[in-house]
Specification:
alpha/beta, 3-stranded parallel sheet, 18 helices, 11 strands, 39% helix
Length: 423
């Protein structure tokens, strides 16, 4: 399995070489040469920032499409992300949406928010029993896991070793479908309705487990028109399908997970730039030792801000808050987890540091190359303008030393200008 599989990719024919993505990428994964962008795969964390800001729509997200795979399985189960509910106006009952999902070609539906309530239960227990790991960092957002894995190795021991709600829901949904239908696991297709490319990438290269429990992932924005066409019909025959309450549905927005866990001292941040600042402060131990839990969402406002959604993130956040007020606090699927050991939802494999930014095979080669980098950087103007096609002067210097394609010191337009003036 390719550990650097990515949902985000570049549609080169659309790229205008405008440098917008270069300055927005939080991990310096993008370069511009010959008026075309390229992505360094090992640096990319599928946050979707380039997709969000590209004016030419050249950055895109790979995902599955329902009509391409629905014949591959005998029984299809939809896993709607909690963010899906906030895409509709005046939604009084989420069972209308769940009923419309069945009318759209699925045989069954299982809410990811139900999985979120199970994760909340597991997290409360884990926090109480592992004070030595405080603060524990949520692993619900795959982008955050990927970011920590490549950039903040000292924080890996603080990652909460519990599967994300999507995986827990998929596991429970498959078990329920097998029991209900008598079909084998391979005949049942578990389909996640995703708000972001990060979770799509997680299915192909999961963290914390060897193989994802989810078979396919479709985008909310792709599925939305089909779902909308069945809403009136669903409203005439509403089926009681919801398994979750306020806590599970609240995971759609920033702070919702923390409220559901009710761990006391917690911190919640959203937006990738804010998240990075929090991680830097965590690494520098700037927070009180009483901090128990850290919830981080790469997207602004939480999962409702994912680039595969259709509604404005902050309007969707308001809708979620308003909708969940009418819900019971919690309504977990007790019959599915009764007498079950909650550790069955823990990681089955550890997350390890991926030193993608290394300048050499060992410390000696790295130190030697770092000296070369500093020598080149000293020749550059240190303006970090990005005009050379690398995001910073330091990034250009590293690209040159590491022999990245097309990287050369002559790319710096300020050096070229200075040379012309001297002549």
């Amino acid at each position: 399995m390719n550990k650097f599989y990515h949902s985000v990719y570049l549609s080169e024919d659309r790229c205008g070489g405008c440098f917008t993505c270069l300055k927005r990428c939080p991990t310096q994964a993008i370069r511009i040469h010959n008026r075309k962008a390229s992505i360094i795969p090992e640096f990319c964390i599928d946050c979707g920032e380039c997709c969000r800001h590209c004016p030419h729509h050249a950055k895109r997200a790979r995902r599955d499409h329902l009509d391409e795979f629905k014949e591959d399985f005998s029984y299809l189960v939809a896993l709607p992300a909690p963010a899906l509910y906030s895409q509709f106006n005046h939604m009084e009952d989420v069972n209308i949406i769940l009923s419309a999902i069945l009318l759209s070609g699925f045989d069954d539906v299982f809410e990811v928010s139900a999985g979120a309530e199970v994760v909340s239960m597991s997290t409360r227990k884990y926090i109480a029993e592992h004070q030595d790991q405080w603060p524990l960092i949520s692993t619900a957002c795959p982008t955050i896991e990927r970011l920590i894995r490549v950039r903040f190795p000292n924080l890996i021991p603080h990652l909460l070793p519990i599967l994300p709600p999507m995986e827990v829901a998929a596991k429970l949904a498959r078990e329920r479908a097998m029991k209900k239908t008598g079909l084998s696991s391979d005949e049942i297709g578990i389909v996640f309705i995703s708000p972001c490319p990060s979770k799509v990438a997680f299915l192909r290269s999961p963290l914390g487990l060897e193989k994802s429990n989810v078979d396919r992932a479709i985008a909310i924005k792709d599925f939305y028109p089909l779902l909308l066409s069945h809403m009136n019909e669903a409203e005439k025959d509403i089926k009681k399908l919801s398994l979750s309450g306020r806590i599970g549905k609240g995971w759609a927005i920033s702070g919702g997970e923390s409220v559901g866990i009710d761990s006391g001292e917690y911190l919640a941040a959203d937006g990738i730039e804010n998240v990075i600042r929090v991680l830097e402060d965590l690494e520098d131990e700037k927070f009180e030792h009483s901090l128990r839990f850290v919830e981080l969402n790469a997207c602004s406002a939480g999962c409702v801000g994912g680039v595969l959604t259709v509604e404005n993130a902050y309007l969707a956040k308001t809708k979620t808050t308003r909708m969940t007020r009418r819900e019971a606090i919690t309504r977990p699927a007790h019959e599915l987890i009764a007498k079950r050991d909650l550790t069955t939802f823990d990681w089955s494999s550890p997350i390890t540091y991926e030193n993608v930014y290394s300048l050499g095979e060992d410390i000696f080669e790295s130190m030697e190359n770092m000296e070369k980098v500093e020598t080149i950087r000293d020749q550059l103007p240190k303006l970090d303008c990005g005009c050379c096609g690398a995001p910073t002067c330091m990034a250009l210097a590293k690209d040159i030393v590491m022999g990245r394609e097309n990287a050369c010191i002559e790319d710096c337009i300020f050096l070229e200008t200075s040379s012309d003036r001297e002549e």
